[in-house]
Structure to design on (91 residues):
């Protein structure tokens, strides 16, 4: 039988298989696995980002104690310096 995305792990009642934009198709196992891996990776990155968003309130570098968290950090010299450092370090 051809590969069916609706029969894979995660497609359970009461929601069933959810693909309203039609990204997957019957028989395209390789494409489905690629999308599945991307979903897991992006979910993990989002979880790490949420921990970082909460953690920045409690953990501050000594040179950046006056920097406001989240988006306010880009309004100060220390925040821009830290952003550029992280940007360069990430490649």
């Amino acid at each position: 039988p051809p590969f069916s995305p609706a029969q894979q792990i995660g497609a359970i009642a009461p929601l069933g298989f959810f693909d309203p934009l039609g990204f997957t198709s019957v028989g395209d196992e390789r494409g489905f696995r690629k999308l599945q891996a991307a979903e897991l990776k992006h979910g993990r990155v989002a979880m790490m980002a949420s921990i970082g968003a909460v953690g920045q309130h409690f953990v501050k570098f000594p040179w950046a104690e006056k920097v406001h968290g989240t988006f306010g950090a880009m309004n100060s010299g220390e925040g821009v310096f830290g952003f550029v450092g992280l940007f360069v370090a990430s490649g």
Q: What stands out?
A: Helices lie at 29-58, 77-89. The chain has a mean pLDDT of 86.
